[in-house]
Design brief:
453 residues, mainly alpha, disordered N terminus, transmembrane helix, NCS2
């Protein structure tokens, strides 16, 4: 399809607005869950959490607009939505606990600058991350986040009523509700099953007296964006290396999404198009660090909406990005996410993080030659290492402090294991092989989203 047709304006403003709202709703649950998890883990105040959710939504919108813009310097120019990178959750929490919140944002800014500077070379860097590595890493990410979901489902770490009947009823009730929605609905409704589950669970919790409305009452209607809200960033080498690894994994996944959308739009993407896409993602990560939110990556679930609605114009995504920006300036709206009780959030997170695990399994099953014993061994050792370190983090308690963040984090330990073993058994691979793998990744994303639609 010609570039002009991709970028043409939709003739019906109301329909364009409704389609943009659909895209926002499809990614909203993922966007607000990340700040809730990080905030709870790092002990942020209610006011800080409201700011974090608001600035995160605003940054999602700005990141989306940067990517959709598509000029000669940055932006892939496709109808894509950007949101928080789930793979950054555990590393950010560990960095915050070990080095402080300021080190998180120093590392995020540095990783974004790395992506911007080396965007043209990512074709070579991504060869370090073939499907056997990315599939293993995504699987590890999902597995290491599941315990977080179950702690919230029980009422939260250290809660007096942890594991109470009320918490279990709400948590597992939400999970069952999401399962039933996924089974008996299709299309757009199925794509927002997690969001509807959160809403239904919160309403049920309200009738049980488990909802606290104080965040809504205390939040203001408008706030001014404050760079470095949590303080001046600090730059430490190990946190920076950790977030650079997370950024490379995100870019590897984004490549598949770009190529999948290119197929939907009948648009052949050149290496320059991809480089502009990587550069926009890097700029979005830098902005996330400056405004103390999160690293951002391209969301694959919105590809399904493009396929389902058959509306492939850029203006719909511009509306979606604009809506997120507007919401981000209104703390009252952002504070709505704080109404969700921990147990309700935990039930939804079991499904959400379980989907991360299944995404990793999909990558492995559809793009990796499992008849080769070497690939099976890479998967076995990397996933085993990642899960083992997560379950027994005290194993490396005697290691030097500077090494704790690398050795004590299951995602990082498992990722490096997968990269090293892939180089050992499979070598670096050729550029042609990397291109073929990206093509297969795009086909797998399209097949998955077609089934969802």
């Amino acid at each position: 399809m010609a570039r002009e047709r991709i970028f043409q304006r939709h003739r019906h403003p109301i329909k364009t607005f409704s389609l943009g709202l659909q895209h926002v709703l499809a990614m909203y649950a993922g966007a607000v869950v990340v700040p809730l998890i990080v905030s709870n883990a790092l002990g942020f105040t209610q006011e800080q959490l409201t700011y974090l959710i608001a600035i995160d939504l605003l940054a999602c919108g700005v990141a989306t607009l940067l990517q959709v813009w598509g000029n000669r310097y940055f932006g892939v120019g496709l109808p894509v939505m950007l949101g928080c990178a789930f793979q950054a959750v555990s590393p950010m929490i560990l960095i915050g606990l070990n080095s402080g919140v300021s080190a998180i944002y120093g590392a995020v800014i540095a990783s974004g600058i790395f992506v911007v500077l080396f965007s043209g070379l990512f074709g070579k860097l991504i060869r370090l991350f073939p499907p056997v590595v990315t599939g293993s890493v995504v699987t590890i990410i999902g597995l290491t986040l599941i315990p977080v979901a179950f702690r919230d489902l029980g009422g939260g770490q250290g809660a007096e009523d942890f594991g109470s009947g009320t918490n279990l009823l709400l948590g597992f009730g939400v999970l069952v509700f999401i399962i039933l929605m996924t089974r008996f609905t299709t299309g757009f409704i199925r794509s927002i099953a997690v969001l509807v589950g959160l809403l239904a669970g919160t309403v049920a919790a309200g009738f049980m007296g488990e909802v606290n409305f104080a965040p809504i009452r205390e939040a203001s209607w408008f706030h001014v964006v404050k760079p470095f809200y949590f303080g001046t960033p600090t730059f430490e080498i190990v946190p920076i290396l950790t977030m650079i690894l997370v950024a490379i994994v995100s870019v590897a996944e984004s490549t598949g999404v770009f190529m999948a959308l290119g197929k939907v739009l009948d648009k052949d993407l050149s290496s320059k198009d991809l480089a502009r896409g990587y550069r926009a993602e890097g700029l979005a990560i830098v902005l996330g660090g400056i405004f103390n939110s999160f690293p951002y990556t391209t969301y694959s679930q919105n590809v399904g909406l493009v396929q389902m609605t058959r509306v492939k114009t850029r203006d719909v995504i511009v509306v979606a990005g604009g809506l997120l920006v507007v919401i981000g300036f209104v703390p009252k709206i952002a504070a709505l996410a704080q109404l969700v009780p921990g147990s309700v959030l935990g039930g939804a997170m079991v499904a959400l993080f379980g989907m991360v695990v299944s995404s990793g399994i999909r990558i492995i099953g559809s793009q990796v030659d499992l008849n080769r014993h070497e690939n099976l061994f890479i998967i076995a050792c990397s996933v085993g290492m990642g899960l083992g370190v997560t379950v027994v983090p005290e194993l490396f308690a005697g290691a030097p402090d500077w090494a704790q963040i690398m050795l004590g984090n299951g995602i990082i330990a498992g990722s490096f294991t997968a990269i090293f073993m892939n180089l050992l058994f499979n070598g670096l691979g050729t550029k042609a092989t990397a291109a073929k793998m990206a093509e297969k990744q795009a086909d797998a994303i399209l097949a998955e989203t077609e089934k969802s639609a």
